[in-house]
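Troubleshooting log. The previous structure file for this entry was overwritten by mistake, so regenerating from the original sequence record. Sequence copied from the archived sheet and checked twice against the printout by T.R.
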Amino acid sequence: MKERAEDHTDRHKIGKAGDPAQRERQLNTGSAQGVQLIYKRKTRDARVIEVLANAALKRYHYGREHYACRVEHTADVLDVACTVMDTLASSYERMRRGDLLDKLVHKLNALRSGPTVGSSTQQQEQPEQQEQPRRGGCE
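Regenerated output below.
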């Protein structure tokens, strides 16, 4: 989220919300300048992602709950954290280490060519579905 009064700066805040549009409306009610949702991404565990992002962006912390770094950098941190978290959450215990790493590298490489903040093709990604365990037999 970004306060409209800070449109000329890179100050912004990160957070989680079950309904981002409703959260934006709530924040606009309490802000004289208003706020604007600038990026959203679905993930399996928003709480974990928020903790990771707060740790990764700590050097840019500004004031109580804002960050003063490029919004694109924050979106990149969120994308990488979500990709790692969702890939790990979708893995199954019998998956070999090399297969898990290959899957993670493939997903991370897909971020290179994906949409960025502000691009017209930016879409909300869905968390990856968990793989189903195989029944019987050996792997």
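The chain has one domain: 2-112. Archived copy saved in two places this time.
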